[in-house]
Amino acid sequence: MDTLKYLEYIVNEIHSTVVATVDDNGLPVTCAIDMMDYDEQGLYFLTAKGKKFYDRLMSRGYLSLTGMKGEDTMSCVAVSFGGKVREIGKERLERLFEKNPYMNEIYPNAASRAALTVFQIYEGNGEWFDLSKKPIERAGFTLGGAEDVKQGYYVTDKCIGCKLCYSKCPQKCIDISTKPVVIRQNNCLHCGNCFTICPARAIVKCGY
Ligand SMILES: Cc1cc2nc3c(=O)[nH]c(=O)nc-3n(C[C@H](O)[C@H](O)[C@H](O)COP(=O)(O)O)c2cc1C
Ligand code: SF4
Ligand code: SF4
């Protein structure tokens, strides 16, 4: 899937997400926020200027979000996204109300919408994590030219082919038919069992 498909999934299939921002004390604060629209330039949501959430967005210019869809854990897809956010004001407000008519119940007329403003998430990194698949499926995506940071565990040439990593891998997502063995990144939990057990220290951990 390309980035647009992930954004579409967030808006049309998940819609209500949990968004984390950071307050003036450097502590994380979460709140429920609807992702109301998307395009090649990013994801769009609205908020009211009087909210603390607005202040946190303006002071940091960054957020992280997670949304989930599914009946229970083992049928669930989660999409997470972290990135830069900017206020674009009222320019897209009407469109967001047209696409999300339930908003008329919350802010019924023009006067009540005075405080509303639209934000765009325009650059960042996301992750798709699907627990309904066996083995699990994950994928990364980027928006707005953000650097695609390599995440997870990778096997180097130091591998001696002992296959101990495979014996401890909960998803059996290590291809042991070659040396060095190869971790199938789109099925890996990032649990680190392989890294810990490898006698040759052949596995490296990448990412943040
Ligand atoms: C399902 C759901 C969706 C919500 N969507 C939004 C939204 O899109 N924009 C918004 O400003 N508040 C939304 N809210 C309300 C915020 O979560 C709430 O105002 C929160 O308290 C804001 O954080 P703050 O109190 O730190 O400002 C939503 C609440 C729920 C339950
Ligand atoms: S445990 Fe280490 S050395 Fe053994 S197969 Fe796995 S990566 Fe290679
Ligand atoms: S990190 Fe865990 S799931 Fe991924 S390859 Fe290593 S043992 Fe398997």
Highlighted features:
Pnp Oxidase, Chain A; binds iron/sulfur cluster; 208 residues; single chain; two-stranded antiparallel ribbon; alpha+beta
Overall number of domains? 2
* 3D shape: elongated
Poorly predicted residue ranges: none
CATH topology of the largest domain: Pnp Oxidase, Chain A
How would you portray this structure in words?
With 208 residues, the protein is α+β, with helices and mostly antiparallel strands. The chain has 2 domains: 141 residues, Pnp Oxidase, Chain A; 55 residues, Alpha-Beta Plaits (2-Layer Sandwich), CATH 3.30.70.20. It contains 6 helices and 12 strands. Strands 1, 2, 3, 4, 5, 6, 7 and 8 form an 8-stranded antiparallel beta sheet that branches. The protein has a two-stranded antiparallel sheet with strand order 9-12. β10 and β11 form a beta hairpin. The protein is elongated, with a radius of gyration of 21 Å. The relative contact order is 0.14. One iron/sulfur cluster binds next to α6.
What's the topology here?
Layout: H1 3-14, E1 16-22, E2 28-34, E3 37-39, E4 42-48, H2 52-60, E5 62-69, E6 77-89, H3 93-99, H4 103-106, E7 116-130, E8 137-143, E9 152-155, H5 164-168, E10 174-175, E11 182-183, H6 193-197, E12 203-206
Antiparallel strand pairs: 1-2, 1-5, 3-4, 4-7, 5-6, 6-7, 7-8, 9-12, 10-11
Bound molecules: flavin mononucleotide (FMN) and iron/sulfur cluster (SF4) (2 copies).
Question: What is this structure, in a nutshell?
Answer:
The protein is an alpha+beta fold. The protein has helices at 3-14, 52-60, 93-99, 103-106, 164-168, 193-197; strands at 16-22, 28-34, 37-39, 42-48, 62-69, 77-89, 116-130, 137-143, 152-155, 174-175, 182-183, 203-206. The chain is elongated.
